[in-house]
Amino acid sequence: MLSVEKLGAPNLALERICAVCREHKLLPVAVRGGTDPVRQSAWALGLGWFAPVEGERARRLASVEVDAAVESQAADDSEAEDPTTKQSQGVAQDPVAGQDATRLYRGTVRSGQQVSAADGDLIVIGAVNAGAEVLAGGSIHIYGPLRGRALAGIHGNLSAGIYCRELKAELLSVAGNYKRLEDVDSRLLGGPAQVHYTNEQLEIKPLV
Amino acid sequence: MAKVIVVTSGKGGVGKTTSAAAISTGLAMRGKKTVVIDFDVGLRNLDLIMGCERRVVYDLVNVIQGEAGLNQALIRDKRVENLFILPASQTRDKEALTQEGVKEVLEKLREEFDFIICDSPAGIERGAQLAMYFADEAVVVTNPEVSSVRDSDRILGLLASKTQRAEQASDPVREHLLITRYNPDRVTSGDMLTLEDIREILAIELLGLIPESEAVLRASNQGVPVIHESASDAGMAYLDTVSRLLGEDVPLRFHQASKKAC
User: Fold this and answer.
1) Left (φ > 0), alpha (ψ -120 to 50) or beta: where does A162 sit?
2) Which is the most buried residue in A16, A86, B7, B223, by most CB within 10 A?
3) Residue A53 confidence class, pLDDT cut points 50, 70, 90
4) Are both A195 and A113 inside the same structural domain?
5) Interchain contact, B151 vs A130, CB within 8 Å
6) This prediction's pTM
7) Which has the higher per-residue pLDDT, A108 or A20?
8) Same domain assignment for residues A131 and A119
9) B140 touches chain A (CB under 8 A)
10) Angle at B60 between CA B123 and CA B16, to 5 degrees
11) Among A131-135, B2-6, B90-94, B256-260, where is mean pLDDT lowest?
């Protein structure tokens, strides 16, 4: 859980914070507090969001601010050192590592289930039903109907795509740019489709 | 070997208890020693549908907490031999159900019975999770309606992850689809989802299809499981369902519009 309620910054590079967490074998699941943009990017990354804590607990948080300050200093340090940052980005974009992280899921992803490939592509051989959610750091390929939510490029990869045999998705998102079922041209529904981020918007085309 | 079968749905009011009562009665009529357990602590209904509400003394919670023996709590059905009912507690807190307790009760029942039918409460909370946890098979009751189908989908997800079979990575729980309150005329007019729609979304084997029927309401209010009304459409459909559960190949009926089926 990332608590940012004591942080003044209106915008956060949440994808990068999450990437750093993962490098250190920490799996971020939710964000607490923060501005609306923070909340939206948390949501786009497939993280939960919680309202800031008030009263008793909030004061306890404030009292350990010293530690937080040390941590933020450390974070500043690592950001100051360009090579470290570059290296970490290099690892994330390593094509071999990306292939290793590809996940294949056989079967129906049912309502309430979440299937994710955090650092690679996700391939589903089966249906993604309404109320289900599939997430990937890379692209999402669904050899079946997509009736639930699909979020590709959750760490900000704009070149990720979503491909499915039958488009009936509740939500489509590439790197946080999303369309709801309501926003999708009804002529595209029910057919095979591909979703990409082009010209600064989410483009949905038939898959031919 | 005894089989534990959970009758579940997620959504309420779709016909879980009606189906659990009919299926357990049907199995007993076919000579299988069967017990049906009500897991709906606090909202006990099975005893009413089975028509034994005046004979309830002890219940599942009493047995789990050691206040009564299993044989004291089991109610013998008056109409069919080989059929027993284990009612739920109406007054206790549902926290009284523990996994360890349920396990012990089921283990004892497994020694004596061929079939143990667990009538799940609606929802996906503790009661529903405990009802399905030890199941070998599941009958997922679904109405031809979008919210019911979605809730069934959710339950199927839980059956594949939150059961003992899933956690021990043994053979998965065998899942059966039972569609109830099916009205072919309303399906034709587009008011209801079609059989094919439901099968496509849920992607599990169809066990049976029960038509919407006046016989069901009448039977419930009289406390006679509808399968006893063997001349009614719903009664016949449940008889078919039980046959299929026992591995017989019975053609589907009552799924076509207007024309009298069979």
Assistant:
1) beta
2) B7
3) low
4) yes
5) no
6) 0.75
7) A108
8) yes
9) no
10) 35
11) B256-260
CATH value at residue A178: 2.160.20.70
Contact between A112 and B151 using a beta-carbon 8 Å cutoff: no
Are residue A33 and residue A115 in the same domain, yes or no? no
Q: Is A129 on the interface with B (CB under 8 A)?
A: yes
Q: Percent of chain B beyond pLDDT 90?
A: 94
Residue A94 resides in a domain: no
B162 touches chain A (CB under 8 A): no
The two tokens of residue A72 are 């933020």
Among candidate residues B131, B124, B136, B96, the one with its CA nearest the CA of residue B2: B136
Residue in the structure block whose two tokens are 């523990």: B98
Whether residues A170 and A84 fall in one domain:
no
Looking at the structure, tell me whether residues A79 and A151 fall in a common domain: no
Amino acid at position A138, single letter: G
Distance CA A32, CA A39 (A): 9
Cβ contacts of A126 on chain B, cutoff 8 Å? 203
Tell me: pLDDT of A147 over 50: yes
Question: Is A117 a domain residue?
Answer: yes
Considering just the CA atoms, what is the radius of gyration of chain A in Å?
19
Residue A79 lies in a domain: yes
Asked if residues A174 and A196 have their Cβ atoms less than 8 Å apart, the reply is: yes
Residues A126 and A168 in one domain: yes
> Tokens for B102?
């349920």
Whether chain B has a CB inside 8 Å of the CB on A157: the answer is no
ipTM, 2 dp:
0.81
Cα of B39 to nearest chain A Cα, Å: 23
A131 vs B: CB within 8 A:
yes
Q: Is there a single domain that holds both residue A120 and residue A159?
A: yes
Query: Which residues 133-152 on chain A approach chain B with CB closer than 8 angstroms?
Result: 147
- The answer to whether the CB atoms of A110 and B157 lie below 8 A apart is yes
B-chain residues near A111 (CB < 8 A): 150-151, 153-154, 157
As for how many domains chain A has, the answer is: 3
Any CB–CB contact under 8 A between B239 and chain A?
no
Q: Which candidate in A106, A111, A143, A168 is best for mutational testing of the B interface (most B CBs within 10 A)?
A: A111
Residue A179 lies in a domain: yes
At CA B253, angle to CA B247 and CA B255, rounded to 5? 125
Identify the domain containing residue A62 by its residue range: 53-88
List pLDDT tens digits, range B114-128.
999 999 999 999 999
Same domain, A117 and A27: no
Cβ proximity of A171 and A151 under 8 Å: yes
The verdict on A112 touching B (C-beta cutoff 8 Å) is: yes
Check whether A98 has a pLDDT greater than 80.
no
Over residues A199-208, the pLDDT tens digits come to 999 999 999 8
At B184-209, the pLDDT tens digits run 999 999 999 999 999 999 999 999 99
